[in-house]
Amino acid sequence: MDAITIPDIRYARVDGLRIGYQEFGVEDGPRTLIIPPLISNIDVLWDNEIYRRMFDHMGRFMRIVHFDKRGIGLSDRFEDVPTIDQRIRDIEAVMDAAGWTSANIIGVSEGGLMAQHFATKHPDRVEKLVLNCTLAPMTHGDRVRQLSGDSYRSVTELLDDFGAIAENWGENAERFVQLMSPSQADNPSYIRWANRLNRLSASPTDFMRQLESVMFLHDGLDPTMIDVPTMIVQTTNDRLCFRGNGAVLSELIADSVLVEVEGADHFLVTMDNWRDVFDPTIEFLTGTRPPTAVQRQFATVMFTDIVGSTTLASSLGDDTWREMIDRHDRITHRVTASSSGRVVKSTGDGLLAVFDTPSSALDAATRMRSDLAEIGLPIRVGLHAGEIEVHADRDISGLAVNLAARVEQAATDGAIFVSSTMKDMLLGSQVLFEDRGEHQLKGIEGSWQLFELADS
Asked: Rounded to two decimals, what is the model's pTM?
């Protein structure tokens, strides 16, 4: 399913510190370094299907390295606010550790400020530059305000946002998501994951220290000195990095390309129209525009659901239930990835995932059921294999998807049910099934013979 294996964590050494990084994607693709935003944890990012789909997509066209800045995520902490030169040395150290003399640079949010400095100080190491929802120099604040229109917000409003985020850091990520990814504000699964990302990225004190360090990144910032091919990506209603920032940067950087995308998300990856950002980026860096047509391919489709979730939630209480669902998400995502599958989306109390083969899907289902039972979360699973349609946003549809959903709904508590198609494809294996008779599946013509995975 074009799913990239989660890469190992490696460490670059600089100034007596260790900077965590990962490398993935096609071996012979253009080398591309991603400089992260204020908050990151390169290990945790793979646990979310929204980020995972972007990594899978980008990794098909380029070789990528991303890292956690000093003081964040898997990298060593620091006592003092890092200087610009120290930030630059972090970038150099990661590139040197990867064996790269030069690369394309993608700077995200705060990372875009670091990328601007790096491109001016070390143009020989930058092949092309992409700036995603990042800031123009504060010295151009009036022009930013003029070009931002209705998207502009006062400093007081921003301070209120960050104050609320800091107050609830690691406990409740709703305000964080409303600011950074408003398109996901009604997605409980994403909010749970964002809360864990925050906890594992930084302590409340580390977060405030990182926030303070952003101000120093404006010192000496001069985008007019950038002399490499540059693309600037800006959402039209970003509530943190206002629209005018992209416009001002395009005025300051000679021959730059400005791509404005409809949306309000500061974290571009979380938007429904995320490919409107990443496809132009891929084309700019590689010269190849990814296909956008719906693709048909064979897959094994899995649906899962927690048995008696409403009763469990009521008996455990809100806080404990959130912790349980968080553990559920971590387990199911990790098992799916280790079986070469891809989580398409969370479905409330379960998930939708796809796998290359019936055997890998069945292995994942078996391990999920066992691992979740150990923490007191029984599940039911439905599996079917057939042709699916893969859309530009990596969502899936088709009869095979609908049928897998109905198989899961027909499954008894704690059981793994498969269609007759799935069973036939496993002929010759050591897997045993028990016949569960014919079923009329809602919205599916005819009757379908379903089977339950037998206890080994």
From this structure: 0.83
